[in-house]
Amino acid sequence: MTDTWLIVGLGNPGVQYQGNRHNVGQMVVDELAGRIGARFKTHKAGAQVVEGRLGIGGPRVVLAKPMTYMNVSGGPVSALASFYGITPDHVVAVHDEIDIPFNTVKLKIGGGEGGHNGLRDISKALATKEYLRVRVGVGRPPGRMETADYVLRDFGTAELKELPFLLDEAADAVETLVCSGLTAAQQKFHPAKSER
User: Fold this and answer.
1) Mind listing the pLDDT tens digit for each residue in 9-50?
2) Domain limits of the chain?
3) Which pTM does this prediction carry?
4) Is 95 a catalytic residue?
5) Which of 22, 43, 90, 95 is catalytic?
6) In terms of DSSP bridges, do strands 41-43 and 47-53 run parallel, antiparallel, or are they unpaired?
């Protein structure tokens, strides 16, 4: 049993996807890597990884960005968890969430995937839904736009002004989660009104 955390930023590989809403999980993990002061290296599990500690004397973490497409994220996540001896309760998936407003961060463990194919594949590969999620709100598609079209588009001009603050808050949420636990993180980052 290890006290290492696997923090996975979900997204799609390739320059054309970098600024997409669907890649906000990878943007958060990039922010965390910057805080650690380390660069991503290619791992045989099919992911880019950074190993380090969050904060001085903080918990050991493996930050990961799967190099597969979003809907087959489970393979690299499962392989990394196995390689580092990390149990599902120490796996954190950071991902885009259309069911909460842009500029909002929420945390939970387990539950449904809400139609998110990346999460669905991770649940299948880990053979459990009982892993942690940091849900980064991107809001719902406008009008009749298809969800897939919406999440595979870059953030809008107004959103881009707020994006650095959102990434910073989501990275803070991950740090609070691994350092202080889920309840403390939820109390700090969830709005006062109850969730649904």
Assistant:
1) 999 999 999 999 999 999 999 999 999 999 999 999 999 999
2) 5-189
3) 0.95
4) no
5) 22
6) antiparallel
